[in-house]
Amino acid sequence: MISLRRTRLRTALLIGCSTAAVSALIGVLWAFLAPAEHLLVVAEGRGIALTGESLHQFDAVAIFFLLALILGVLTGVAAWLARLSRGPYALGGLIVGSVLGTALMAAVGTGIAKLRFPSVDNPAVGEIIARAPGIGTLLVLIVQPLAACITTLVLVALSPYDDLGVADHADDADVEADVLSEPATQELS
Predict the structure, then answer these.
(1) Which long-range contacts (CB under 8 A, 24 or more apart) does 109-114 make?
(2) CA 28 to chain centre
(3) Can you tell me the mean pLDDT for 162-183?
(4) 3-class DSSP assignment, residue 137
(5) Can you tell me the mean pLDDT for 150-154?
(6) What pLDDT does 5 receive?
(7) How far apart are CA 103 and CA 19, in angstroms?
(8) What is the pTM for the complete model shown?
(9) Inside any domain, residue 112
(10) Does residue 37 form part of some domain?
(11) Tally of domains within the chain
(12) Would you say residue 187 lies in a domain?
């Protein structure tokens, strides 16, 4: 017979691996959504951004941020649905999976973006080239784990049970029906 602890460890491992795998797939999505920045080559090794193109650096970071935020919320809810494993094991698997997943998301996404927009060696002066998008700042790597933790915190706070609903509980409607069906009698002394 498999112990409850072993089941919780397996579920935590499954949560972590699934989160990391889905994050890598979202990195592929980001690579196709993030726009390239177009530059005009003005001298050898120097280029200037065309009008409005420098905003694409922000666009790439904002798209990464939003995808990581959405993924963090969804993985937090998905981990919560593993009812028998709710608690520190599931949260640990979720955090580890989110940290590894957001790193994979950035690595896979920037790698595919560089394949989509390869760097040009020795472009001619006056040529317009596309530069691959990047994540811009490493601070966006904290978004997915933070969103997953906050989502889990909210779900824990909203749980009506001390054990987070792991054990089987009587339906609240059945309990109310039993209380209402008993006659209210009081002794007068």
Answers:
(1) 109/27, 109/28, 109/30, 109/31, 109/34, 109/64, 109/135, 110/31, 110/134, 110/135, 111/31, 112/27, 112/28, 112/31, 112/32, 113/30, 113/31, 113/34, 113/36
(2) 14
(3) 63
(4) coil
(5) 95
(6) 83
(7) 12
(8) 0.81
(9) yes
(10) yes
(11) 1
(12) no
| pLDDT (mean) for 42-65 | 83
Dihedral (CA of 138, 153, 63, 74) sign: positive
pLDDT over 80 at 164, yes or no:
no
6's CB contacts (< 8 A; 6+ apart) are none
Give pLDDT tens digits for 78-130: 999 888 788 889 999 999 999 999 999 999 999 999 999 988 888 888 888 88
Q: Residue 174, class by beta-carbon neighbours within 10 Å (0-12 exposed, 13-18 middle, 19+ buried)?
A: exposed
> Which helix (H) or strand (E) covers residue 156, if one does?
helix 143-158
Q: How far is CA 101 from CA 59, 75, 123, 183, in A?
A: 21, 11, 36, 57
In a domain, 47, yes or no: yes
Task: Give the residue numbers spanning the domain of 61.
Answer: 8-181
